[in-house]
Write a structure and sequence with these properties.
By secondary structure, this protein is an alpha+beta fold. Helices cover 34% and strands 21% of the residues. It folds into two domains: 166 residues, Creatinase/prolidase N-terminal domain (Creatine Amidinohydrolase, Chain A, domain 1, 3-Layer(aba) Sandwich), CATH 3.40.350.10; 230 residues, Alpha-Beta Complex (Creatine Amidinohydrolase). The termini are far apart.
């Protein structure tokens, strides 16, 4: 008896965050795009895309797994036997082709067999061929692509990277509610970490307080480990890991977290200083907060990412030349899995001419750094509305915390 047979006999209760009708609507939207592009079968390798379509949830989203979305008929998946419980517990996908997790070197050949058995040689097959944004995972790997080309010689393979991502861009009312709930969890974590910040504590102690608060309040697995840079490390940019660094008088602490609710994210940044801030730190903090406020004031449907970024850039004029800013005023967020909370390539930055639409959701990461000295960050997550934007994170205490 296989593991799947044992699980099926035992009975596994399905727990999905949305209704069956909502998942059907999403699949229908993707199939409409597939028909327009002439795609017979979509292979979904981006785990968060598969979650969006089916409810799939796992602690190991980087594990090899491919979802099969035919233009007509039932969905299927090719996945490890250790992931079968996740499939049965979080989706209504019953066609499961299983491989042994310790034999992953042959997954490409097995997937080719799965497709041949289902009659897909000679069909147009869409692959998620590219990384949708800088920090994403989930692009179809080159070895598997070459194997499928060899094993299904009559098939045509096309780039379908954006098919599901485009469907995810505009959020439903339920998705927005989950992001608001995530924002509340984020705020609890930030508050706890700010309260734990003091002269002589370590960045590990600060992060531990935030994690404990978010998890205790109901957060699931974090899509990105909480970011905390302290002291001189706070001036090295937002991706420098916490590492047993003790904070001292006059130093800054940078925090960036998201709680997670049904895999939806709402990141936020806050910053603190130990003791009275210097004039330079105060000026840096004021500029970041002013820029964030300008973004919130200027985001509206019909405006381009470029237009909003140009309006917000005025807030950083006072520190121009003295500090470094990465140039990205906003990026799209929503459903996300480790190791990232970003979603699809919609940005608020100079040169980005795509118009914002009601229902799009963004993180506004205004963090500025003086290398090897100090850095601060302030951000909110927002949803574009019919007339402007809604702040999804609680947005309280948008100020430099003095500890």
């Amino acid at each position: 008896m296989t593991y799947q047979d044992m699980l099926t006999r035992a009975g596994v209760e399905i727990d999905r965050p949305f209704t069956d009708e909502e998942y059907d609507r999403r699949i229908d939207a993707v199939r409409d795009t597939m028909r327009k592009q002439g795609i017979d079968l979509l292979l979904v390798s981006n785990t968060s895309n598969w979650s969006y379509l089916t409810g799939y949830d796992t602690t190991m989203p980087s594990c090899y797994g491919v979802g099969l979305v035919p233009v007509d008929g039932d969905l299927a998946t090719h996945t490890a036997e250790l992931e079968v419980p996740c499939v049965l517990a979080s989706t209504r996908v019953n066609d499961i082709a299983v491989y042994d997790w310790y034999d992953a070197r042959s997954t490409a050949e097995q997937l080719a067999s799965v497709l041949l058995e289902r009659g897909y040689d000679g069909k147009v097959i869409g692959l998620e061929m590219g990384y949708p944004e800088t920090f994403a995972i989930g692009a179809f790997d080159a070895k598997s692509y070459l194997t499928l080309k060899e094993q299904l010689p009559a098939s045509t393979f096309v780039d379908a990277t954006q098919v599901v991502l485009d469907a995810r861009t505009i959020k439903s009312a339920s998705e927005l509610e989950y992001m608001r709930r995530a924002g509340e969890l984020t705020w609890k974590g930030l508050q706890a970490s700010l309260a734990a910040t003091a002269d002589g504590v370590t960045d590990n102690e600060i992060v531990a307080a935030g994690y404990a608060a978010m998890i205790a309040a109901g957060s699931e697995l974090m899509s990105i480990d909480g970011m905390c840079m302290a002291g001189a490390r706070a001036g090295l940019g937002p991706h420098t890991p916490h590492k047993r660094t003790t904070v001292h008088q006059g130093e800054t602490v940078y925090l960036e977290y998201t709680g997670t609710y049904n895999r939806y994210n709402a990141p936020s940044m806050r910053s603190a200083v130990i003791g009275p801030p210097s004039e330079d730190i105060r000026r840096l903090s004021d500029a970041a907060i002013e820029t964030l406020n300008l973004l919130i004031d200027n985001i509206a449907p019909g405006r381009t990412g470029h237009e909003v970024a140009r309006a917000a850039a005025k807030g950083l004029k006072s520190v121009e030349g003295d500090a470094w800013f990465h140039g990205g005023y906003g990026y799209s967020i929503g459903l996300g899995m480790q190791p990232h909370w970003t979603e699809a390539p919609v940005y608020i930055a100079e040169g980005q001419d795509r118009e914002l639409e009601s229902g799009m959701t963004f993180h506004l990461p205004i963090c500025v750094f003086v290398p090897n000295r100090y850095g601060v960050g302030f951000s909110e997550s927002v949803a574009v509305t019919q007339s402007g934007c809604e702040v999804l994170t609680p947005g309280r205490a948008r100020e430099l915390a003095v500890r």
